[in-house]
Every structure is written in C-alpha cells, then in structure tokens.
Structure of N,N'-diacetylchitobiose phosphorylase:
Amino acid sequence: MRYGYFDDENREYVIDHVNTPVPWTNYIGVNDMCAVLSQSADGYVFYKSPQYHRITRFRPNAPISRPGHYVYLRDDDTGEYWSISWQPVGKDLTKAKYECRHGLSYSKYSCEYNGISACQTIFIPLNEPVELWDVVLKNNSSRPRCLSIYSYIEFSFHQIDMDNQNFQMSLYASGSSYADGIIEYDLYYEESGYQWFTSSFEPDGFDCLRDRFLGAYRDERNPIAVERGECTGSFEKTGNHCAALQKKLVLQPGQDIRIAFLLGEGKRETAAPMREKYSDPANVDRAFSDLAAFWDEKLSKLQVNTPNQGMNTSLNIWNLYQAEVNIMFSRFASFIEVGGRTGLGFRDTSQDAMTIASSNPEKCRQRIIELCRGLTQQGYGLHLFQPEWFDPEFQGKQQSFKSPTVIPTPSMEEKVHGIKDACSDDALWLIAAISEYIKETGEVSLLDEMVTYADGGEGTVYQHMMRILDFSAEQVGATGICKGLRADWNDCLNLGGGESAMVSFLHYWALQHFLALSRFIGKTEEVEKYEKMAAKVKKACNDNLWDGEWYIRGITGSGRKIGTHDDKEGKVHIESNAWAVFSGVADLDRAVKAMDSVDKYLYTRYGLMLNAPSYTKSDDEIGFVTRVYPGVKENGSIFSHPNPWAWCAEAALGRGDRAMKFYNALLPYNQNDKIEVRQSEPYSYCQFVMGKDHTAFGRARHPFMTGSGGWAYFAATRYLLGVRPDFDHLIVDPCIPKDWGSFDVTRVWRGAVYRIHVENPCGVSKGVKTMEMDGKTLSGWIPVQKAGTQHSVHVVMG
C-alpha cells in the first residue's frame, strides 16, 4: 500500500494519502530554532533546547498527535469550517483533497475543499529565530466567498519537565497579552522568557487563552471560537496560553490572497520589525530561496547516478538530509524523544560528526571540540553531557534568572560520575571522527589545538586521541579483550562486568585511523608505540573470540562466552562479526566465514537482525537485553545502525552483490509500497524494524534520530561507491554488483570538483584496472587539486 511518492525534481516527499498509519515527520530549521512537524502540521517548536526552551506544547504518544501549527478556515455564510492541514478538523477525505509535501527544512500543506484551495508552507529562515507560515488562499468557485481565517498554536512552559509535571509553577508563572496585532507570551520567572505571534494583517479578533478559544469539553477539532465565528479577545496572567489571530476576508471568484503568520523569540518589540519585513511577500520568497540555496550547497558536495534509483534518491537527497538533521540538533527532539533530556550523546555525536564532514565541516569541527571537552583525563567520554557545561564563552555569558529554567550547570562531581558510568565504546568513535575530518578538510593544525578535559586540565586534540586509545588498552579483562564497563554500543548488553568483543575490534579500527594519521604527520615515536598496541589487540581478538564459523559477542564477568555455536539464544551477533571484518582483525578465511554466518542467521528481507535467535529467557549476566521482548530493539530486531557496518565488511571482502543485497533490504525507499507493514515514513531510516521473532515483523519505529542515517550515507558513498578522501589524495575503490555497467559520482573535495565516471566492462564487483583524470593516467588515486578547478575522472574496473 502506498501513501505518497518521491518528487526528486523538487526534492520533496509528497504525501497524497495523509491518513498515514503513524505520523510522518519532518524537521524545520537549521540553526537555533527548530520545529518537528507531521504530515498534519502537528508538532512543536523549540529554541536551542527542546528540554529547556520549548516554545509550543505537544502531547506525545496519543491516538492523534496534537497540538500543532494550525490554520482554520471558516465559510462565514454557512458556518462550515475546516483546517488547511487535514488535522485537526479531519474532514472526510472522500469530500476534501489534502496533500503534504515534506521538503528540506520546510513542509507544505494544501487542501481543496468547498470551492477554496489553500496552502500553508512552514519554514524557518536561515539566521532568524522566527517560524513563518506562508498562507495562500484562492476562490475557485463562481461566487464571492466570505471567509474567516484563524491561526492556532499552544504555548509551552520552557522547561519541559515543569510543563508536564509542576503545574503550580507552569500554570501560574505564564501570561499573555495582546497589543498592536501582536500576541506576547511571558514566562514570569525568566527574565528573557518571551515569545510572540503576529501576522501580516490587522486582526479582526484574537484569543490568547487556550480554553477560551477551544471551549469547555472541546479540543482542536472543534474550537468554539471557530464554530461561532468570533474570537473573545482573551488574555490573562496565569493559565494555558495560545496564539489565535482571526481575519475576515472576502474573495471574489478566481481571486487569491497571500498572508503570513509569524512565531518568534523575544519580547513584543522584536516582533514589529519582523512583522514589517515579512508582510512583504518578496521577503518571504527571498528567505525561502535562501533556505533552498543552503541545501543546494550541501547536496552539491556529492551527487550520484547509479543503476539503483532508490540509492540515487536516498544519497542525493534524503539520506544526507537525515544525517544533517542529526548533526545539527540533539537526538532528543522527535515525536518519540520529546525533549525530556537533551545534550550530546558521546558515541552518537562522534559518529554523526564522522559521517558528513563533506557537507558540514563547520558543524563537525564544532562537535569534535565539544566532544574533546567531554573527555576525561583518564580517557573515557561522558556518555551524555551538555556542551555548555564546558564552553568558556557560554559560562561567561550566563545571565541572572529568577528560576533555574535555563540549562543547569552542575558541579564537577555531578558532571563526571566516574568510570562506573562509562560506556566502553563511546570515546573510540571520536578517533575516526577526527581522522575523517582532517581527510576531508586537510586541517592538520586541529591536532595541535588545546582543549580542556571534562575533569580539569587541558591537552592538544592529538593528546586527547592518545588518552582514548590508552584507556581502552588499560581497561581489559583476563583475556586481553576490552572490558564492557557499563555497556558497549549495545546499551542493553551489559555482560556482568565482562569483556566486549565489539569494543576490542573497534579499538583496533581506531588504532588504524590513528596510526595512518600519525604516519602522515611524521610522529615516529607514537607510530612505534601504537603499532605494538594494535598487534597486541589483534592477537587477543583472534586468540579468544573466534568460534569456528563466526566471532563471539563477548565474555561475561564469570568467564562465559556469549554468541557461540553452543548458545540456543543469541547465537550470532552482527556487531562483533561486522567489526571483526571491517576493522581488519579477521584474516580472509575467517572474514568470509563470519560474514557468511551473518547472511545465514541474521538476514531478512527488511535488513539484518542484531542477533539471532532472540533471547527469551532472562539472564542478568548477559544483560538487560534478555528482558527485552524478542524481535524488539536490542533483542533480535533489525536495528538499523549496525546494518551499514555489514555493508562495509562485505565491501572489504569485495562482495558487491551481497553488500547491495544488504543495502537494498534496509533502504526505506524500497518499502514505499509496503506501508501497511512498515507504517513509518519511507524517506527516513528508522532506529529499528521489528525482527522475525515479533508478530509485527517489518514494522519500523523511531525515524530520523538514529545513527543509521549518517552511517548509511558514509558506508554507501565511501565503501560501496568507493569514493573517499585520504590525507593527501582521493580514493576511488568501488564495490558494486557485478551487473552494474557503470555509475557516476560528482564529488567536491577541498574546493575542487571531481566528476567521476566508473565503467565496469568485465562485470566485476571490485578492482580498478585503469584511472585517468583530464585524459592523463593516474597511478591508483587522485591527487589534491587546486580549489575552484573542475576535473573529469574516468575509472575502468577490472
């Protein structure tokens, strides 16, 4: 069953059946202000933090997601009313035509009903804390139409826990007022706790109190003010507050009208210039064009044309977009994670920064510095922290507030809990992030930048990297395998204080990144030290983790091996086997057997399961994973994040057909016509898909905010298509299906444009026979070219 389609020309996903099984979301905004919106304009806005600066209210996990960013229309001759987005009024879809177009940082809602066509485009300009609703109405009937238009949002108390729990504070410390066409929302306990809402017209009515606009025993479906055709002019100190502005209009046959609504940050006086600016439609158009140009620039860094249309649409538009959303914003803003916690997850942010340095090097660099500040002197990272805790500029700008409704700054003891709360994999990801950033930008000087540690003192970025590697070398168990500590990447696999195979493979992978970087900058002493460390890690892994057909997952505190051929449950795990191969620890024979086992035990038509068979009997020595329902999340689901690790592993083995088989199984695009199974949006990777051991096998959950977005982009572009930078050259080393005759990649690297055409006349999966640039033969790679130049590269596989 299909609910929409991909419009690649306009870079939109078009939802023409808006009654999707679950909300299909989009992210609006690219800087400080962000909104999370569904295909029905449900959702919420926040400024910098969804936990500490929520602007509009949202009620999650409800049968119908509400409230949102609504525009109501009323026929004042008949009293009938509807909304431009299908919800909240929810008109009969056999009598009204609704559509939603999710684009890059905007969503467009349109309807045709009762002779009126209407469109509402919601977006946030690049550098202004204001959300714009660009609304166009047209009278398609043959008679004049008397209409009223109403806006509606519901304001939230900034601190989300207080808004949800402490009503004696949130209800009695918030107020609203109206003057000069502007609604101001005031949080009394915050000296700068203000928002405003206005429009491009002079209102004929308004309401600032939610309960007066909606009415008793009503909700957003049937607000009394819209039903009666008149707002009440309500406002008050204390209570629940909204922003409803009403305008009466007369549209002649064929006439259209364009108006704007604005939701902004700050006091009333900041609204007036914004209102004046965006009352001119030309300025609205200019802001929208600037946003399009912003995404043009990002997408232009890498474009592909392959025989796989789903791959083209994903890599050229949606996969990068999802990865960018993750690096721009906290993982804790969605319809699932609704702002109850914020900050940077160390492992998540490190991987996000690693995967899209090509399109957003500035944000990746920012994240790297923030993560270095979140590293302890001992060498482990704080699993979750607020970057503001360690930002000297932020600390120097702290304002005086009447109540702690801004991001709190805890004591040192509260920030750094000690190694008991450390996750063994967290900091290792940062090694690759730093390496990949330097490969992309050439900024070797980053390594010499002085950065503080979370628990005091400072060191260079390079010294931070060594602390990380040394920590993993010190934290090993009796077999020399890295301790799992609180947990490794799989938070639910705790191993009772035992050892993690995945982390040792990850340690080896990080060491290879560090060694390549150290050789490049001529650090002979460090190369010698860490080559010995890498050899020791590799030996420990191969001596203790091989089980005959695959690599085990770990060793519990009592010495019991997990993920062996003797196990009835949790026999094979994707993390240890994919990383054994991708890291380079496994020799060819073992690597082939390990990935054959992954295919045999973990492959499904929706992707690779995390482990199989699922655990059904609780075993606290293995961890909380054994108490998770079989086929759900960490216990036997198709957990999306590690799937690309297996693509990389197969690419390392040169098995392009299997790598693409794995890629296609997980690709959301390929499930566009299976929404009765998938349910979630087909333009976003989801955190997980229910596994074979669950009755809802194939159902996807938790879209957008997942590391699988960045990893899918990284793996597909750098290892399947094989175009990846090194420190002083660009590599082209594809691993593709044998039946691909050719493909093209346009890659911008260090300011030069490379148009790469790859031919596969012999029908191979891997291997480059010849390579030319601008008609001249190259010896294996592409050297750095001058910024601003353009080059044609011709590669023949064989």
Q: What stands out?
A: The two ends are 41 Å apart (CA to CA).
